[in-house]
Amino acid sequence: AHCSNTNTTQHKSSSSSNNSNSSMSFSAGLRLGDLNDFISPSQACMKPVNVPKEDGDTKAAKIEIREDGTYVEVAEDGKQSALKAAQISLADCLACSGCITSAESVLITAQSTEEFLKQIQTGKTIAVSVSPQTRASLAVHFNLTPLQVFKRLTTFFKSLGAAYVLDSNFGLEVSLLETAADFLCRYRAAHPAEPAANSGEATAAGPLPLFVSACPGWVCYAEKSHAYALQHLSSAKSAQGVMGAIVKQHIAKTIGKKPDQVYHVSVEPCYDKKLEASREDFSTNGVPDVDTVLATLEVVDLLNQTDTDFKSLSESPLDTAEGDTLLGQPGSSGGYCEYIMRRAARELFNMEPPREFSYRTIRNTDFRETSLKDATGRTLLRCACAYGFRNIQNVLRKLKSHTLEYDIVEVMACPCGCANGGGQVKALPSQKPEQLIASVEKAYNEGQVACLPEANAGVCKLYETLSLGDPLLASGCALADERRALLHTQYHARAEDPAKNTHLNLAW
User: Fold this and answer.
1) What is the secondary structure of 257-302 as a DSSP string?
2) Is the peptide bond prior to 353 cis by the omega test (within 30 degrees of 0)?
3) How much is the pLDDT for 73?
4) Is 381 helix (H, G, I), strand (E, B) or coil?
5) Is a pLDDT exceeding 90 seen at residue 28?
6) Cα–Cα distance for residue pair 151/149, rounded to 1 Å
7) How confident is the model at residue 209, as a pLDDT?
């Protein structure tokens, strides 16, 4: 199997035109795509609705649809009564077990370019975080470098009224630190004979293997249909979650604003990031850490809506301490697997990791494994990268049967990972999808300078300023409450209604 994103049919959800609430608008870039990887491509919401009944109301009735699309209940005596339209929110989508996709979901209300443009007029301070996957996709689309794209995006968003245009890689660096520390804590708890670099660790570690939790599609899937796996998910927030916490709880305070006076927009390669932003766990006192998520395609639509010639835009200085240097990690899905292995080599086994890890393809190109070995060739750790739901389900089956032999599993819902996110710019009719994805991967890796998170001066300064402790301290153990609240989250098993035919346990 090769990576593909072959769907070229573009749909706007009919829900936006049929809903009487004018605020329920969708961005033009919102499309059903990546149809090969749907778990259950639901065409109707299955949210249960409680219908109040009057005492003694046992008469039969039927429902008719009028020409204007409204529904009426017709009683046996001919009496008609209009039925109220059911309302759903993103929170309902998360709580429902009716549908899930690998990269797209039902997107409601606040998650649109229209809402973003409306919020600009409110006088709030606008902060925009841009993901490196988005920069790489736009770089290929416009035949520019990721740095040129970032500078032009800075110009564009600031011309619309944004005060800050930030690099989401900063959040990724923090997420990598916390995820790696989570693994180290779990490993030491499972292997008490191993020497610990940090003393005073408690025994609050979760079990192995550790599953990387940066992909919201994967997290949503696990919560809805594989609750037994939740204890294996790292509690570390994703890059978007970290950036949201930093913007609303640190930057806002620094500029003398309350969190609700700052409007935070995250530009991502994936529509499921909209669902992540809607989680109650990613808010503080009812104020969301990320107010709106715009997919890469929606930024292209925004450029078109504003009649902006992107390539002719001037390049503005970046709002980063590194100037024109973009720091990051190799691997367009965040590089979690390799970073954790490198940290483990040094801190668990007192050895230098290899310069490059060699991968072995298992079954298909979206399932690869690598390992850390000592000088004698003995395997110390095993890691797998499982992308796409077919591979995820295979991993989960082995986890449930206690036959999974990995210590770390980097999980992404989209085949080929985040470079192939459902919100990325699609291939042209004359272009093969796998060629586009390869070009985006290349632009991603060439567009930034590799730098270990613990060597990033800005990241270290953040930990110091917020009194979060040593960035290399193992998390999930002796972790300060402030650090846990800011940089970590939790997961919830979402009960499935047995009366529904949800297809969530569909076997590929």
Assistant:
1) --GGGEEEEEEES-THHHHHHH-GGGEETTEES-SEEEEHHHHHHH
2) no
3) 77
4) strand
5) no
6) 6
7) 96
Q: How far apart are CA 274 and CA 46, in angstroms?
A: 20
Which residues fall within 8 angstroms of residue 162, CB to CB, at 6 or more apart? 120, 126, 127, 128, 265
Instruction: Note the pLDDT tens digit of each residue in 289-332.
Output: 999 999 999 999 999 999 999 999 999 999 987 778 888 888 88
For residue 17, the one-letter residue type is S
270: pLDDT strictly greater than 80: yes
**Predicted local confidence at residue 58, as pLDDT:** 57
Compute the distance between CA of residue 265 and CA of residue 110 in angstroms, rounded to an integer.
11
> C-alpha distances in angstroms, 177 versus 66, 184, 199, 411, 458?
57, 11, 18, 17, 13
Per-residue CA distances from 496 to 34, 197, 224 (Å): 25, 43, 7
Determine the average pLDDT of the residues in 109-121.
85
Question: Whole-angstrom Cα distance, residue 85 to residue 414?
Answer: 34
pLDDT at position 81, please?
81
Q: Angle CA(435)–CA(441)–CA(447) in degrees, nearest 5? A: 130
Measured CA to CA in angstroms, residue 31 lies from 99, 206, 248, 265, 380 at distances of: 16, 38, 30, 20, 44
CA distance 279 to 197: 35
Mapped onto helix, strand or coil, the DSSP state of residue 77 is: coil
Calpha distance 419→68 (Å, rounded): 43
Q: Quick one: tokens of 360?
A: 């072995």
Q: In angstroms, what is the C-alpha Rg of the chain?
A: 24
Region 218-240: mean pLDDT is 93
The type of residue at 110 is A
| Token pair belonging to 256 | 């003398």
pLDDT in tens, 329-368: 888 888 999 999 999 999 999 999 998 899 999 888 899 9
Contact 176, 410 (CB under 8 A): no
Distance CA 148, CA 235 (A): 34
* Cα–Cα nearest to 165, from 267, 240, 241, 242: 267
210: helix, strand or coil: strand
Q: In this structure, what are the phi and psi dihedrals at residue 127, rounded to the nearest 5 degrees? A: -120, 130
181 vs 173: CA distance, rounded Å: 12
pTM of the model: 0.79
DSSP string, 78-139: S-EEEPPPP---HHHHHH--S-B-SS-----TTSSHHHHHHHHTTTPEEEEEE-HHHHHHHH
Residue found by looking up tokens 């298992």 in the block: 362
Place of tokens 């979760």: 206
The whole-number pLDDT of residue 390 equals 86
